[in-house]
Amino acid sequence: MKYLIDKTISFNTDDGVLAQTDTDNAEIVNLSIPAARLLEEFTRSGGRELTREYLLENVWEIHGLQATDGNLRQYISILRRNLALLGCPEFIVTIPKVGFKANPDIPVIASNPVEFDETISTFGGGDSLPPSRTNTEFVRWCSILFALFLIAGLSAFLLHNRMATTVLPGHYVSDDGCDITYVKDIPDATRKGNVALITDILRKNNLQCSRDNIVIFDKEISAASDNNSRIMLSFCYTGKNKEVISCENFYEYKKVEK
Length: 258
Prior knowledge:
- By secondary structure, this protein is α+β, with helices and mostly antiparallel strands.
- The protein folds into two domains: 2-114, Winged helix-like DNA-binding domain superfamily/Winged helix DNA-binding domain (Arc Repressor Mutant, subunit A); 133-255, no CATH class.
- Helices cover 32% and strands 26% of the residues.
- The protein contains five helices and 13 strands.
- The strands form three sheets. A five-stranded antiparallel sheet has the order 4-3-2-1-8, with no helix packed on it.
- α1 (33-43) packs across α3.
- The longest helix is centred in the middle third of the chain and has 30 residues, at 133-162.
- It is globular and about 55 Å long.
- The N and C termini lie far apart (41 Å).
- The relative contact order is 0.12.
């Protein structure tokens, strides 16, 4: 399903993409799965009041995810920040002691997906490409590969937590305290060199790593072509005991400049 918010922002619930529709150089935001589910609740609510309990259950609990008020506040903040970036800062209204609602003064129109131009985008506001069967297959395989890399990275992170006295080969802490775990073992100089790239990716997506986060990262050159590189990054929020609460996932596939 697609929605048009405030006549200028398209929201595709299938891939979590928010995009401006009224400019040539449109800003594009790729929402994480929980953020996209949360925004969908607002866009299809018709301005009804949505209690905290309702949102926690329908965005997290029924999908088998941990639901806390902290999660809800965090993702409400993420949505507000991204909507403001696209020119609609007042879409989500707080109802004290109850929950939230979509601003009834901002129109939301549900639309059949064929009424909008489909786009496939990379993070960081990259260029959009017309859809094709090849692109669709590519995105599907990238998603599968990313899931495998993410599982491997999280396994390494959990092993690191259980073996507190052991520093894993793929583990690195930057000067600002950002806890970075690399999916595979790479030279120490390469790990340090990737910090600038990781920082740039987070900056493009309005994120900043701190001691309350962990970043799982992988970069590799395609085996099929030495001119193609694939970058996969998972930005995770952690609890008091460094347990992973939720993650935002990003990937990029591009030509390597020679």
